[in-house]
Amino acid sequence: MVSLQPPVCDFGWKAHEFNLRGVDGKRYTPKNTCGKNGLLVMFICNHCPYVKSIRDRIVRDTRELLKHGINSIAIMSNDSAEYVEDSFENMQKVAQQYAYPFPYVWDETQQIAKDYGAVCTPDFFGFNAQLELQYRGRLDASRKEAMPDVPRDLFNAMVQVAQTGKGPLEQIASMGCSIKWKSET
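Request: output the structure for the sequence above.
Response:
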């Protein structure tokens, strides 16, 4: 397992369009998913130990962000042929098991991960109501092992986005497993 860190926020970068199928059978785009104050786009998967270790905190934070007008969506872009745990059927099971309060969608071609420049799971992109990037950082300081009383970087940043339309100037990159790209033949 290679641990990667994505670049930090490129403020104002516009959310790329997508139209992806969710585990509930519905189609999702940035526009039909965005809340009145913004949208959190998360690149996650089922098998990554980093994602597994923060699932409960992601669910907690995304539920609370709904109260601030921030909706969320999770995109799974890994090569599910090589990583069966990340199959669409397993995505459905995980979303149900953890009662995801957000759409969990499949980037089957991996094009959306490429468009966004996603490099790892988890990789978080926080947009304001105009779908301009305001946050690209970590969930919190605890990394894989939950630590008590650490600042909730992602949650606090997205509350700030909800209130002001702008993210914090200082952000610390997320860290996780590399996206599992399909081999090019």
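The chain has a mean pLDDT of 93.
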